[in-house]
Amino acid sequence: MKFLILATVMSCASLISYGQVGINTQLPQALLDIEVSDPSAPDATDGILIPRVSAFPAVDPDASQDGMLVYLTTTTGNSTPGFYYWNGAITQWCKLMTENAMMMCSIAGIGLGASGTIFNFDNIRFSSIQGANFVGNELMLPPGVYEIESDLRLNPNVAIEWNMRLNGTIYPGSIPGSSVSAVALLNTSTNPQRAIVTITSTSGGIDFEVTNGLGASLISDCSYLKITKLQ
């Protein structure tokens, strides 16, 4: 019995001093080393499940939990589903992002009507935003936080203002765009429309409305819409 107790103590001491744990391997190459049986043909269960939460803790973590990782399963406020870590330096949950998804659209050289005219940039040149698609005149975007910028290039002697709409209503957080042309120098003054938009429902549709002006003719392929998915 004394030998068994001594062997157990020595074994635990060895584990503590060595400090490396291997799963499916006897030669761990890090503090925690997990290997699958067949990397070229993994099973559906070959992975790590990070704790899943539908809301962030009501009480913020403390300094000892800096870097703690969770997976948010539902949209909570401005936070969309994804991996989040606790950033103790700024005391907030920060989303892990590998890269920003983007979309670029243009609009043909058409004529736009006076105030109240609804239009969109329907010629998609590039898109890596999964789930983005047109339904009628609206560009539908999946839940997330987006940075949106649009610009109109006009033919001479006209001035126009426009703004972005979300689900049929001008978005209050959007900065309207304005464009003024001249006879000699096209677009001597232009201010793009800009907005940061949070979509929390299943999807949200965006389009644009002429808010001031008597109408304008666009220069072909010189007007654009740029969307960047931030979260």
Your description of this structure?
It is a single chain. This protein is mainly beta. The protein folds into two domains: 2-95, no CATH class; 101-229, Sandwich (Jelly Rolls), CATH 2.60.120. It contains one helix and 21 strands. Strands 9, 11, 12, 14, 15, 16, 17 and 19 form an eight-stranded antiparallel beta sheet that branches. The relative contact order is 0.17.
- State the order of secondary-structure elements, H for helix, E for strand: HEEEEEEEEEEEEEEEEEEEEE
Integer average pLDDT: 84
**Count of the domains:** 2
Largest sheet: 8 strands, antiparallel
Shape: elongated
Q: Nutshell version of this structure?
A:
The chain is mainly β and 231 residues long. It has one helix at 2-18; strands spanning 21-23, 32-34, 52-53, 69-72, 82-87, 92-95, 101-107, 111-112, 118-119, 123-127, 133-135, 138-141, 144-151, 159-166, 169-170, 177-180, 189-191, 193-199, 204-212, 216-217, 223-229. The model is unreliable at 1-6 and 8-17 (pLDDT under 50).
